[in-house]
Amino acid sequence: MSKNLSAVVAHIAILLAVFIVCGLLSSVAAATDAGAAKFTGELEENATLRVLENDTAIKQGYLAELIAAFNEEYKDYHITVQDANMDQYTDLENDGPYGYGPDVLYQANDRIMRYPDGKHILPLPAEEFDCYDKISEKGWQAYRRTVAGQEYTFGIPVNVQGPLLYYRKDLLPENWESEWDDDGDGIPDMVEYWTDMYRFSKEIKEGGGGKKFGYMRSFLEPYFSVGYLYSYGGYTFGKGNTDPSDIGHSKGNAELGANIIRQLATVMDQRCIDDSVTTGAYAALASGEFFATITTPDVYTMFVDEMKAKGYTEDFIAENLVTTYIPKLPASGNLEDESQGFIECNMMGGVQGYAISSYTKYPNAALAFVKFATSYEMIKRRNELLGIVPARGDVADEVGGLSEVINNNLEAGNITVMPSIKENAQIWTPLQTLFQDLAKDAFRTGAEIKYATLDSMKEALQRVDQQIYDSIFTLQ
Amino acid sequence: MEDRKENVARKLGRGFRATLEKIKNFFLSLPARIKQKLAGAKEILTQGNGKVAASMVVMGLGQLLYRQWAKGILYLLAQLAFLAYFILKGAGDLIGFFTLGTHESNAWYGVEGDNSVIMMLMGILAIIALIFYFVIYLANVKDAYKIQCAVDTMKSPASFKKELSSLLGKNFHKTALALPIIGVCVFSVLPIIFMILIAFTNYGGTVVPPALVDWVGFENFTKILTLGQFAPTFFRIFGWNILWAVLSTFINYFAGLGLALLLNRKCVKGKTFWRLFPILAYAVPGFITLIAFKFMFSYGGPINQMITDAGGTAVGFLDIDAKWTARFIGLGVNAWLNIPSGMLLATGILSNVNTDLYEAARVDGASPWKQFVRITLPYVLFATMPVLISQFIANFNNFGIFYFLRGGLYMDGYFLASDTDLLINWLYNMSIDNNYYSIGAAISIIIFAVTSVISLAVYVLSPSYKQEETYQ
Amino acid sequence: MKRRKIRPKRLFGAAITYLIILAVCFVFLFPILWLVLASFSKTGSIYSFRGFFPTEYSFDSFVKLFTDTEMYNYPRWFLNTLFIALMSSLFGTTLTILTAYCMSRFRFKSRKALMKTTLILGMFPSFMTMTAVYILMTQFNLINQRWGLILIYSAGAPMGYLTQKGFFDTISISIDEAARIDGATNFQIFMRITLPLAAPMIVYTLLSSFVWPWSDFILPKLLLKNKDLYTVAVGLMALDNTEFSRFAAGSVFIAVPIVIFYFALSKFLINGLSAGAVKQ
Question: B231-471 in CATH: which number?
């Protein structure tokens, strides 16, 4: 008995010894510190950089051009750049640490700025860039973050995204110069003031028999709808969109913005409730079913393609497919009341740019690439090929037109760059539900109507703020 | 009808009681069983000779001393392999399981620290390996003792060759099941254990790698149970979820069976052709059909276009107010997606019905309806009862339907959910959309506890579990 | 006399049957037909046609699908999917049938416990375990590997063995016993007697374990980062939403192999080898 028992004990003792010794050894040896500063200025030889670009840039051939130009320029260093060949929304947080992420990535500010907290992207020496003083402060702000007590810049702005109004000049009433230009500035009032757009759309809808509409746009996407709340004093996060504990969609007179949405829905049809018209807008504007819609500048070619398919000539399109900035809102918050004058319509926007992954083996080559890709020539080429609004002031000034308008509106604060903090991911579903509800309310009848008064809208906004707060903090 | 309801209720009640009884019996019989095991261990400890003791110190040593070369070498190799694993990796992993990391990594400076999530997973693997090790160790000791007994009673111990050949004969199941079980353990059980353990950590929110995760005990559970909004939403969704699972399982099952029977009728010519239509529905990936259905029922979709063209007003089939319409559409779309596979299965099973029975019934002059109720239905029910249960589970956890048809809504009266969401959608909203993995894990444990008891009770009660041999 | 009496009744029954079948087929065809029509639509957007039918038809989206591969390499995705689904189907079916057979024919100690455990395991919400699966695969170096997916699909397949077990439970064991008396091992019985009998079930299993990887998009999305390795499901989801007709064309074409698969195997599925004689 004792002999056998001691045999078992001996076995267990050996096992225990193995565990204690090896366990202790492994926990001591865990951390390795390379300790090297990343940007030494010395280009790595034979580097291969994987660059993640957005789909449009790949489709329109811009990325191929950029890569060819860079590879030519840096062939002496044997640095080659290639398409990362990944999904444009790739999450660096998931893939980077395991070595499956790209070296350089081009994404919107709300995505890129999720990465600094885990130090997944490198702080960039922004002042070394030749675009440093060409990009507005608002553009840089979208990429600044304080980490461990020090403020860093994590991305180089390339493209400002802000919405535009697209309309068909040939669908204006014949007599617009006498009837629809009260301020006499030679621009139709309906593309300058929401009140006139509302009146005009109402007329078209009443005469159209359900086949013709004036302004049309789905309210489902918060990106395009939340601006109405902003215009009357609402905001997403406090302290310039940096304080997630202060959620303000119900602050100020934001309920007036909610009222505008509900009123605008009445001159459309139910398709503004869900996303039915989002991708259909191109064809509908081309066929003349809609007079105007709001979307981003980079889809201009989509409208042109659809109009060409309908048999319009290029000259006709260039003449009659017009883009302009968003109309002004009535200060009264009622589209039937112009008595209190007008205020600027605020809209949500975004800044897209480049960032460098912390997991890259060639940080200096990556930096050289980003510098190259944000140079004057490349941004200009990007604008020509993709129709983007450059964040670089010098390019924007030169191409003029809408690029200038959008940059000026960004500067003036009429375009609110979407929050760059992680918590921003939690605002979409509650807002989307609200906008759907408001739009639907325009088509409810009798006792079903939920938002007959401004107070009820204010309450709805407060509920939304509470929901966002819940999804950020309650379970934390 | 009332009668039947009562019957079902009574049966379910009996199922619960049976399950409880089993659990009780398990615990009651535990002391006796432990005693038995201890007696076995004591026997080996007292009776085992020096060679058995050698096996106790080093696996396989006793077998080698008894000149059982093949087995001895195998055990010895196992001993060495495990030791090598523990020394090189296992021991560190096991410690890491408890600490979940001590050094944070910093990608800016290339500091490679600890990744808590990997450590937890590898820790679980190390624990599984350790358990496995003890199982083999015990088998080794028992084997050595068995040889000793055989030698003592002058019998020659079973040859290695003979033991091997039994793996294709008497012990065929051991051979056949080894691979599936290992696969399921690694890719299903291990992740589930991982998820259960996550519920006891603070993983999620801002605490994701490279930040270090910590054990927090039952904190997540107390957080959920003390949260006022949790219970009302839970029960509201739970009620709908049960209703959904029962209805959709019932509809899909009987519609599939009905379709199979219909197409099996003698008067139907060109069966292969007719069956093609449901197969088409089966052939297009589900998420694509769901996107198509969502569009068809949208305000700009073909159905509403036809309505408005005919002069009606558009119907919000799936919009924010469409609670019950959306639920019914969900049921219909789910049926559309699942009937084809149900039909395929039923067709396969029907082809195996013993035709003699029908022959006999026809001779007796039984009507077709009677033949169906007396022969076909019991047979098909018996063969597919487990399917019914797994379909119930699949429907209960049907994530795709409402995610694609009506995702992205938070309703009033619900905590971060909509009125068509099932528990699994709610779980998704909270854990993936809002990043609270540990809370999500805790909730899924609660949901799991409730649902598994129900389905286990039904399963244990079903004839295909109780009388497996009926048709054999 | 007698025959005449029965005929009208039978005819009526057949007419009703056909009527129902036609209705059912219509219900199943309608959404698919719409998808097919959309794939032949000339413009990219679905909203460009009023009602059910597109305004103009063309073959362009199919041509584009297979020639315009710069950005969306559909042929590549298609081959990837085919490879993954075929392999997973073969391995998965083998494992499932083996498991079901053992659970049906053998009585061993932990059998009932195993049955209950697998039932319960299926109740866990699968997306909660995705993090673990992803990390596991990074440790095994199986990200961006088609074999990684095949491994997971095949390993997961036996979890659904209950259907097949239910089927084996209905096959009489008297033949097994007869064979055993003749000295056949369990392995031989399984290969020579049980498998041929289970043909319809094997076909069903092959088909269903083919369809799963064929239409899944969560796992490939998680494990395949490189666009050249995408499966059709992931690729189609990445398609720009203005490319609807191409999306529709891709969705229609993806159904083709399953339909072929069905035609090739339907003979076994329906007739099996089960004409009364072999069973008691």
Answer: 1.10.3720.10
